[in-house]
């Protein structure tokens, strides 16, 4: 009888620093499984963001670079242009990608850079202590929106998948979540598809993963899952927003 | 050496990179250096190289970082406001120890300033435009030929020290056309980077993974990391100082310290003064970091030399380093102009005569 | 001996090009040369000028406030630079576009209708080469044959224009020869 549960080779044997109820661990594992399944560990380069996943390089067993806040897509562009044979992914949070790094992600996607972005959206800045993010929901309390996000001042939350899907350059854009087991299989399929497009040298691929942050939301992990499902998924709708096969 | 060709500094810089074995160029347009991008947009495809026009200098800095961290030879060119935007990446690149070559064809500042030649980015380049304790090896050419030669040695130097290197020209070096020859003997192959670059584990003998980062949360580790960086800067001070001494063999009453385009004007002034019977020497730093401390001090304290003057197209930046070198043993003056109006030989002659 | 030449005119008149051709020819003659353009917003349709320095020894300051010679392809250029020219230099005025004269008695002024001459040859665009031919013939700054070769090289990508440009050079030279030195 074989083992029922093993650690992917691409995942390091390490305890993560993530909080209880955080979904980074699940997403890391899905990425690692996909890299194993595609047999690309030896030619993969990951790019860590600034945010809670800044130390992501400690949890994977292949080459990694660490970016400045928001700049991972520019670094990925640099790598892919000089070494198209390397498999490159950025792993970014919502502050990193949708705020300070908005320019870099839009232009990399629009150039059709052939790397993969895993965008973890938990509607708050995690590492810096729960400040308002571009994806924070209307009325959501954060340390910099203590009375709740005021859309008159801060505007509406940015829907990155929808925004990137408007670009005329072919690409793969999808939104998934991993907050409950039933979503995880679909999320993994999407991540695998994203990497497969890259392996084929086809297009830029983008997987938004709606997540949780019980610590900064001030909730228990169970409450966080409930709030994420009821509030975030109502606004951040799951699904495939764009495929390269679509007519531009 | 090949045949002499007449080339604009900006184009010659682009060609020199190719001759030096660098086939990867990322850039964003800005006057007065956009001809580099225009030249390489045509030339890179001919040699199988890479040119990407980034969306901003911020992004370009990180394109260099990523490409260099993946083991490639890589460079960019920009001008002052663009270099300010790249300074964030330069700090990360220094921290993560990646070899990259930056060219700054300086224009006047601050802010948008102007587009004419300036040396106003001396402090930014030499003292660190980005955050944290890092230094850059900075070379300042005074002719198109020298820009070519400095470009060609910049890549192996960046690899030797695993860090950012800057070629600091001014608008005139970029815009001027002069005859150039591309020296074959300066062409080098990129060094083996398997021990640190994230170029794919499977291509590596060790089979272990590499990590390129600048984050050290442990204070002892970060201190050690900074000590390692400092040891490189100390090594540069021992091994990489370059300067030209002009008219310093005999006696002179005054010593000029000047670099880049400004030093050419000073040479004309020195020649003219000689005809009038006034002897003036000059030290022209070719590396601004490391700075030729000993050469300047020795030349300044030579018997007969009464004054030292730093002549710059900036409002008294390099003069601080000259004062540091002279250590109060001679009066040190400054003369300079900003805005793009390069001081004339006649002005320099006047300054020297008044100083004596 | 050092010669500095200021070429000035409207953007689009090929000012920078004739400066470059002169620098190229002088380089082939084994001289030290530097070519400095005006650059920036003013080059988009406004005035354009460039300086060429030709010298027997390494060129120090490449920026010259008082050039030895001036080639003024339009009226604003003459107004702007005529008084800066060193005594004894050549001032070439494109008299097709500029009715004025320099008012200088200490220079060799040559008024030549280079735009009209180019039109007669069939292309107004060759006016710059007519001016170059006239200036080089008058100043003797480099051997005329070297200029001819430098023009051919400059137009190597547009080889069908070369016969016209050669005629333009000769028309300039002829014009320089027939006007009295003042």
Short recap of the structure:
The complex is a heterotrimer of chains A (248), B (356) and C (182). Chain B is of the alpha/beta class and 356 residues long. Chain B has helices at residues 9-19, 34-46, 57-69, 80-96, 122-128, 144-161, 171-175, 219-239, 260-275, 293-300, 318-326, 345-355; strands at residues 5-8, 24-27, 50-53, 75-78, 100-106, 137-139, 164-170, 177-180, 211-212, 243-246, 254-257, 280-285, 287-289, 307-312, 332-336.
Report on this model:
Chain A contains 9 helices and 7 strands; from the N terminus they run αββαβααβααβαβααβ. Chain A has helices at 24-38, 72-82, 94-100, 102-111, 151-154, 160-165, 181-199, 214-217, 221-235; strands at 44-48, 63-66, 87-93, 116-121, 171-177, 204-210, 239-242. A 7-stranded mixed beta sheet of chain A has the order 2-1-3-4-6-5-7, with helices on both faces. In chain A, helix 1 crosses helix 7 (181-199) and helix 3 (94-100) crosses helix 4 (102-111). Chain B has 356 residues and is of the alpha/beta class. Chain B folds into 2 domains: 5-239, Thiamin diphosphate (ThDP)-binding fold, Pyr/PP domains (Rossmann fold), CATH 3.40.50.970; 243-355, Rossmann fold (3-Layer(aba) Sandwich), CATH 3.40.50.920. Chain B is built from 12 helices and 15 strands. Chain B starts with a strand and ends with a helix. Chain C has 6 helices and 6 strands, in the order E-H-E-E-E-H-E-E-H-H-H-H. In chain C, helix 2 links the parallel strand 4 (69-72) and strand 5. In chain C, helix 3 (114-121) crosses helix 4 (127-139) and helix 3 packs across helix 6 (162-178).
């Amino acid at each position: 009888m074989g083992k029922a549960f093993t650690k992917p080779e691409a995942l390091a044997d390490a305890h993560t620093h993530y909080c209880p109820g955080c979904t980074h661990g699940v997403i890391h594992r899905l990425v690692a499984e996909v890299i194993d399944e595609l047999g690309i560990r030896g030619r993969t380069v990951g790019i860590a963001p600034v945010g809670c996943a800044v130390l992501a390089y400690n949890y994977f067993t292949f080459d990694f670079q660490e970016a400045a806040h928001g700049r991972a897509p520019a670094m990925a562009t640099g790598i892919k242009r000089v070494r198209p044979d390397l498999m490159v992914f950025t792993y970014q949070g919502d502050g990193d990608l949708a705020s300070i790094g908005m320019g870099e992600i839009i232009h990399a996607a629009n150039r059709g850079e052939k790397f993969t972005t895993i965008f973890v959206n938990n509607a708050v800045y995690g590492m810096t202590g729960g400040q308002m993010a571009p994806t924070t929901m209307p009325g959501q309390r954060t340390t910099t929106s203590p009375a709740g996000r005021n859309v008159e001042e801060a505007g509406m939350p940015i829907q990155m998948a929808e925004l990137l899907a408007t670009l005329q350059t072919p690409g793969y854009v999808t939104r998934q979540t991993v907050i409950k087991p039933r979503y995880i299989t679909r999320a993994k399929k999407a991540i695998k598809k994203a990497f497969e497009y890259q392996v084929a040298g086809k297009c830029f691929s983008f997987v938004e993963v709606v997540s949780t942050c019980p610590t900064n939301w001030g909730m228990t992990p169970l409450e966080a899952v409930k709030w994420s499902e009821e509030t975030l998924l109502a606004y951040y709708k799951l699904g495939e927003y764009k495929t390269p096969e679509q007519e531009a | 050496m090949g045949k002499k060709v007449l080339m604009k500094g900006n184009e010659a810089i682009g060609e020199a990179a190719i001759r030096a074995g660098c086939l990867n160029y990322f850039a964003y347009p800005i006057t007065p250096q956009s001809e580099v991008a225009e030249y390489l947009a045509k030339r890179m495809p001919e040699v199988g190289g890479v040119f990407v026009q980034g969306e901003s200098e911020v992004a370009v800095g990180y394109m260099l970082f990523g490409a260099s961290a993946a083991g490639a030879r890589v460079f960019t060119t920009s001008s002052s406001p663009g270099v300010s935007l790249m300074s964030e990446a330069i700090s990360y690149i220094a921290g993560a120890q990646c070899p990259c070559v930056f060219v700054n064809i300086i224009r006047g500042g601050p802010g948008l300033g102007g587009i004419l030649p300036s040396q106003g980015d001396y402090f930014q380049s030499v003292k660190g435009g980005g955050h944290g304790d890092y230094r850059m090896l900075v070379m300042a050419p005074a002719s198109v030929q020298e820009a070519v030669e400095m470009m060609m040695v910049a890549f192996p130097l960046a690899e030797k020290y695993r860090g950012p290197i800057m070629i600091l020209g001014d608008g005139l070096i970029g815009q001027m056309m002069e005859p150039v020859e591309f020296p074959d003997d300066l062409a080098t192959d990129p060094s083996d980077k398997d021990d640190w670059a994230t170029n794919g584990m499977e291509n590596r003998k060790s089979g272990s993974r590499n990590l390129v980062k600048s984050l050290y949360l442990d204070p002892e580790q970060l201190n050690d990391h900074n000590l390692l960086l400092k040891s490189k800067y100390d090594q540069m001070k021992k091994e990489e100082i370059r300067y030209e001494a002009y008219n310093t063999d005999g006696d002179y009453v005054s010593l000029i310290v000047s670099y880049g385009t400004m030093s050419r004007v000073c040479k004309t002034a020195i020649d003219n003064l000689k005809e009038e019977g006034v002897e003036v020497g000059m030290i022209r730093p070719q590396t601004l970091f490391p700075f030729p401390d000993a050469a300047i001090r020795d030349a300044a304290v030579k018997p007969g030399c009464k004054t030292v003057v730093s002549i710059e197209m900036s409002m008294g930046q390099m003069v601080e380093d000259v004062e540091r070198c002279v250590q109060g043993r001679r009066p040190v003056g400054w003369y300079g102009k900003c805005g793009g109006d390069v001081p004339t030989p006649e002005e320099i002659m006047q300054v020297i005569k008044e100083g004596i | 001996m050092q010669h500095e030449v200021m070429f000035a005119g409207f953007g689009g008149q090929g000012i920078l090009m004739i400066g470059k051709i002169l620098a190229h020819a002088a380089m082939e003659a084994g001289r030290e040369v530097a070519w400095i353009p005006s650059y920036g917003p003013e080059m988009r349709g406004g005035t354009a000028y460039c300086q060429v320095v030709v010298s027997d020894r390494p060129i120090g300051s490449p920026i010259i406030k008082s050039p030895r010679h001036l080639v003024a392809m339009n009226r604003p250029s003459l107004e702007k630079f005529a008084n800066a020219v060193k005594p004894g230099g050549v001032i070439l005025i494109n008299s097709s576009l500029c009715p004025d004269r320099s008012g200088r008695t200490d220079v060799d002024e040559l008024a030549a209708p280079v735009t009209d001459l180019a039109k007669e040859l069939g292309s107004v665009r060759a006016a710059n080469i007519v001016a170059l031919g006239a200036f080089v013939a008058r100043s003797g700054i480099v051997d005329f044959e070297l200029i001819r070769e430098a023009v051919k090289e400059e137009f190597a990508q547009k080889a069908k224009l070369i016969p016209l440009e050669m005629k333009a050079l000769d028309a300039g030279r002829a014009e320089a020869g027939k006007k009295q030195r003042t």
